[in-house]
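A quick aside before the break. I want you to see a complete sequence-to-structure record at least once, exactly as it would be stored in a machine-readable document. Don't worry about memorizing anything.
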Amino acid sequence: MIDKALECFKDMFGSDGDIRCYFAPGRVNLIGEHTDYNGGHVFPCALTMGNYGVARKRDDRMLRWYNMTYPHEGVQEKSLDELVPNDNGLWYDYQHGVLWAMQKAGIEIPFGYDMVMIADLPAGSGLSASASIEELAAVIVRDLNELPISMVDCARFGQISENDYNGSNTGIMDQFASAMGKKDHAIFLDTADLSYEYVPLNLKDEKIIVTNSRVKHNLTENSYNSYNTRRKESEEALADLRKILDIDSLGELDEETFDSNCMSIQSEVCRKRARHAVYENRRTIRAVTALQNGDLEAFGKLMIDSHVSLRDDYAVSCEEVDILVDEALKLPGVIGSRITGGGFGGCTVSIVKNESVDRFTGDLGRIYRERTGIEAEFYITDAGDGAGRIR
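That is the input. The structure line, written in tokens, reads:
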């Protein structure tokens, strides 16, 4: 991929000067969904799929870019002084949002860049293509301008891009996983204070399989089925609970405390959203402990419980994704399966015994095609490193 992008860069922008190559991964979240903006724990890992960029520093403040995925757009350009928040949801707005966030924080970016991008990560699949773009932009501008910012800072600026520039009120999990990923490890992240631990994925006899439903979601759409709506519902539940409890987030509650006080939440819908946030956070903590103890069966059971909660209490699944999970759990060698990502389409993540992988992809693909008319895509994934310069 990077060789193709490098060749394209030379054709588009010339072969002279200090040309550098970068990569930022997507992520899959093993468990802990919609907990990151509720002050809870998450357990993602970076993928070996993502966005690749080839860039060269300019001697002015212009940004010029070309995306090989959208060749019809041609070379586009914009000044660092012209970045304005919007909710267009165009891929390059995620790039611009990071640079805007850095400048808003008082970080001087003296020079723009020429850049060619290419991806092997499907957009709209729930694998955080937007966060990958944000972290790619962050490491490019950080490296080319020798900015004194950490990779955690890069994750923070990515979240600001998503929230304040692009209008989707996401938590920080996606950007943190893309920025801070570590090969063969998942990240046990407490989003309340950004403390984290790398946990080895010692899956000797199993594979992590991501299945793309190919039903695309839009997390910024203004409708009942939107990410922003779920966040508002969670915030309303928290506001009701804070009238009787001294808490700052739903992630501070355990199941018993929530159950004893949940009727203070006036809206039944908001009560269900809060129940998911509380129970999912506790599930995530128990799941990581199970994995560290080598109890993969317990981990898989918690994945299944997570999906049920996301389907019934948080209402972010959809018919196609439910089919993928339900049918996967009927197949031999499947330890656990659940929706992953923001929801309303996208991907599932499953843990499957090695000897059952071929049957899993073959049978599940056939059943899904027969029931929906859609051809699912399967990715047998490895946990990879986070964003950075690769050449």
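Two observations worth writing down. Residues 268-292 form the longest helix (25 residues). Residues 219-224 have pLDDT under 50 and may be disordered. We'll return to this after the break.
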